[in-house]
Specification:
Layout lengths: L2 H4 L4 H17 L5 H8 L6 H10 L6 H26 L3 E2 L2 E2 L1 H5 L1 H20 L4 H23 L6 H26 L4 H28 L2 H4 L5 H4 L5 H7 L4 H9 L2 H13 L3 H19 L7 H15 L3
Antiparallel strand pairs: 1-2
Length: 317
């Protein structure tokens, strides 16, 4: 199962979203275009804009409203990544040198700001006050999550971890789906079902990313393995491992030689059963996502949403 096959009902319209992203690059000041192209045209899966289009398919599928909103969701996502990389001093993103690594922190911050502004401009294009408000609330939520993560390293609390996911990842998935429902003039119960689906799906997606941070290879992930652990950000695999009898040894390793400790603990996690435990949690959230939309019409689009949850539950790279 591939993402392209899952998105088949809206694949042609995703190309139109891609065209809007290209227009953002072309309309930018000439000195920014290379950086924008580097950040935007990275071959990403475009899951967030796809969610907006799929959600809009259940009622009045008006592409004049949905295309700009879908593009807005991708711009917002990329802007957060650029700022994340700058804060984290990351060197790689999607297998390429990060914006901050190539052009410096100042340029990366300004480019992220430019994309935030562009995403807001596109979100306002449908002239729907509820969607504009939702966009603003989501941006505040994402920024709050990033700020809280930066001041709370080495946190082993599982509830705190899931709150960070809801703020930084799930909120964007939820908004992508909810805005599609709003712009298609869906009934309120449908809009809320789509929002719940997006929230649970986004949570599952982030947990898988956190697992792949340990199990995948650097050339597959496009960033160093165990990069979060190296920054003191404890994700679900780490939190679960630290609760085991071996957890004390892991803490001592991390308190000693930092680089060597991270490498050793990452190896311990890879060889443990916590990876399987994490995927069990992922499947639980994917089941919640599917349950949230079980009352929606049984259409090819509904099938795509179910298959997308299945894809994330089994994603290994």
């Amino acid at each position: 199962m591939t993402v392209a096959s899952i998105f088949e009902p809206i694949q042609a319209d995703l190309y139109r979203v891609e065209e809007r992203l290209e227009q953002v690059v072309e309309a930018a000041p000439v000195q920014m275009r290379e950086q924008l192209s580097h950040g935007l045209m990275n071959g990403g899966k475009r899951i967030r804009p796809a969610l907006t289009l799929l959600a809009g398919k259940f009622h009045d599928y008006n592409l004049e409203l949905l295309i700009p909103m879908a593009a807005s969701m991708e711009l917002l996502h990329v802007a957060t990544l650029i700022h994340d990389d700058t804060v984290d001093r990351a060197d790689l993103r999607h297998g390429k040198m990060s914006i901050n690594r190539v052009w410096g922190d100042s340029s990366a911050v300004l480019l992220g700001d430019y994309l935030f502004a562009n995403s807001a401009y596109l979100a306002a294009e449908p002239k729907n006050l509820r969607v504009v408000t939702l966009f603003a609330q989501t941006l505040m939520t994402v920024c709050t999550g990033e700020l809280e993560e930066s001041v709370g390293p080495f946190n082993e609390d599982r509830d705190y971890y899931f709150q960070m996911i809801r703020n930084k990842t799930a909120s964007l998935f939820a908004t992508a789906a909810e805005s599609g429902g709003v712009l298609s003039q869906a009934p309120e119960e449908v809009i809320q079902s789509l929002s719940s689906y997006g929230c649970s799906l986004g949570t599952a997606f982030q947990i898988v990313d956190d697992v792949l941070d340990f199990t995948s290879e650097e050339d597959v992930m496009g960033k160093p393995v165990a990069s979060d652990l190296a920054r003191g950000v404890y994700t679900l695999p780490v939190i679960l491992f630290l609760q085991r009898p071996e957890g004390q040894e892991a803490r001592e390793l991390l308190r000693g030689d930092r680089e060597g400790g991270v490498k050793a603990v990452a190896g311990m996690i890879r060889q443990s059963s916590v990876i399987a435990e994490c995927y069990e949690v992922v499947r639980e959230y994917c089941a919640r996502a599917c349950s949230a939309i079980e009352s929606l019409p049984d259409t090819p689009v509904h099938d795509s949403l179910i298959r997308l949850a299945d894809y994330i539950a089994e994603r290994k790279g």
